[in-house]
Each structure stands twice: as structure tokens, then as C-alpha cells.
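Sequence only, no structure available. Ideas?
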Amino acid sequence: MSAQRKANVGAVVPLTSDACYRVELQRLLPADSPRSTGEDRRHIVRLAESESQWPPILVHRATMRVIDGMHRVHAARMKGMTHIEVLFFDGSAAEAFLRGVESNVVHGLPLTLPDRKAAAERILESMPELSDRTIATSTGLSSKTVARIRLRSTGEIPHSNIRIGADGRTRPLDSSRRRQQVIELLTASPDMPLRALAAAADVSVSTAHAIRKKMRERLCPDGGTAEGPDTNALLLQKLTRDPAMRASQQGRDLLRWLHSHSMNRKMWPRVAEAVPPHLAATVAELASRNAREWRAFADRIQSSDTAI
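Reply:
I predicted one. C-alpha cells follow.
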């Protein structure tokens, strides 16, 4: 794996080049470090005494300020070196600070919790458009912690009407319009695949799934189905004819279960009459348990779109 690829793992702001240069130490400016206690003297000594080759340090090209690697810089000076291997980063000063935080979170001497919180607050001030989850990933905090820092620092943090997620996509902060679009799409096409639905409305798959689930619960508050009485038979017929369902033993077992458990409301009165009064509570409990299991199975299949 190249030095750039190693440096880019988990990075919100990636490097733009993997070209490595030998740079004079005297040209480098000290890091704008998120570490409140400064460099660790003992770690510098350990590096200087080590015979292992160090990875290149990361430097902001525009300012020649070290982003990641000040311990290696001090160790190099301690060893009497005049040059050091450098990877250059092209971006703004705010992006350079973010990159430095990311580097210190994933390797080297870890940042303390107060340092990571302070770094998150500074990132929020300079890049308020980044989502809480994105900043959480970069700082090693939870998204809830970042959200609390944003809320606590609202007076100092510039307002932004957008959020940039970890996927790099820009989304409006007001999600009500996009949620309404999900509802409109589902009204027109109730069986629209989750991933297609999420992409069309510019929401996450989990959000699309949650909205569809709520809509179905409103339509069928008693756990029944809004479909016509013949829909089950048609769906079963479609599944049974599909070779993919019959290709494995698990698929064939599922078809048998679906056939044996298929029921519509027209059948309920006749079947209910066959239940002895003294067993009514037991049958009702078993039916409720089965209903919960089938619902959990349905939810798992619907949400499995996220893994595709």
C-alpha cells in the first residue's frame, strides 16, 4: 500500500498526490496541533533511538506547516538530520487542521478526550457545513457528542443550511421536504425498492425504510394488510415461479412456510370458531408471537438493502 493510500484511510480530506519529497527541516513550520500538551519528549527520544524507517510526515504545501509528524521532525533534528521525507497536502488551513486531527486519531500518540472535543469545536467553527457524523469520524467522538458541542456553541458557530456527509454529498439541513418526497414516491409506488427510493429523495436507506414502515403502520394500525384478498395468492404464485427461490433448500423451505402461513381476514371467523374457549388465550399469544417474528423477518429483508 502506498504512503498516500495509508494516509488516506478514513480521511475526510484526502491527499491529492502520493509523491514523496526530501525537504529541509529548516523550511518547516511547527504544526497547528490539536494536542494541548505539546509533543511528548519521551516519544521523541524513542523515535530518535529507533533504527526503523519512519513514514513521511504530512505538510501543508501552501504554508509549509507540519500537519502530522512533529515528533518525527524533533527526532530528526535530535539525530542531526537536515532533511526529512514529506508528503504534501493541498487544501485550506481549516482542511489541513481537520486532516491533522484525523491523523492523530488513527495512529501515533492518541489525543486525549478533552483534546478531541476541543478539536471538534474548532472544526465546527471553521467548517459548520460538515455533518455531526463526519466530524465524529474525524475526531474519534460519537455523533451525539459532536451534536452537543454544536448545540452548546451555537453562538460562536456560523449557521449553515447544508450538511456535508461522510460520503461527500451535500444535503439541505431541512429534511422535511425530502421526507415529504419519500411519502409522495411511496404513495405513487408502494413497492419501490428502498435504495431507489432513497436515491430519488436524497435520503439515507434507513430513513426511507423508517418512513415506509410508519406509513404501513398508519394504513394498517391493527397489524393487518391493506392489500386486497387475492394479493397474497398472487404474490405467492410469483415467488413460487421464480427459479431463484427454488434454487436452494432455504428458499424452498421459505416457500413452504409462506404457503402454510398465508391467511386473509375472510378466513379468520371460520378458523376462530374452531378454537376451544379454554385455549383462546394460548392461541392468541402464539399468533401474536408469530406475527412479531414475521414482522422482524420482513424488516430485516427490507433493511438488508443497505448491505447491497
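The beta strands are 20-24, 57-60, 65-68, 83-89, 162-164, 170-172.
Hope that gets you unstuck.
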